[in-house]
């Protein structure tokens, strides 16, 4: 949480991308390797009859890590680092 004060959402997104490139889960606190990454861009759910874009989800090892990462990203201030008070 402390590091969130010194980065922007774009920096965090870059971290997630870089981790997924080296086949690690995109969530920085998780050290698991990514399994087989699907090549498809969409997932069709027959339960809900909806089409889901899974491009972003492919960078994470589990739904928990994806949700935790999105939760942390939402808490990072969008203002530039040099404008912040702390």
Automatic annotation (TrEMBL):
What span is annotated as the signal peptide, if there is one?
none
Entry-linked InterPro entries: Rtr1/RPAP2, Rtr1/RPAP2_dom, Rtr1/RPAP2_sf
Citing just one GO molecular function, the answer is: zinc ion binding
Q: Which organism is it from?
A: Ictidomys tridecemlineatus (Thirteen-lined ground squirrel)
Q: Which family does it belong to?
A: Belongs to the RPAP2 family.
Recorded protein name is RNA polymerase II subunit B1 CTD phosphatase RPAP2 homolog
Q: What is the lineage of its organism?
A: Eukaryota, Metazoa, Chordata, Craniata, Vertebrata
- UniProt keyword Metal-binding, yes or no: yes
Instruction: Supply the EC number(s).
Output: 3.1.3.16
| EC top class, as a word | hydrolase
Ranges for the RTR1-type domain? Answer: 2-85
């Amino acid at each position: 949480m402390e590091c969130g004060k010194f980065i922007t959402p774009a920096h965090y997104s870059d971290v997630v991308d870089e981790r997924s490139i080296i086949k690690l889960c995109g969530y920085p606190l998780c050290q698991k390797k990514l399994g087989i990454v699907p090549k498809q861009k969409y997932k069709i759910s027959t339960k809900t009859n909806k089409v889901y874009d899974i491009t972003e989800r492919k960078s994470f090892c589990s739904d928990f890590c994806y949700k935790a990462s999105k939760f942390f990203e939402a808490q990072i201030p969008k203002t530039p680092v040099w404008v912040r008070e702390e």
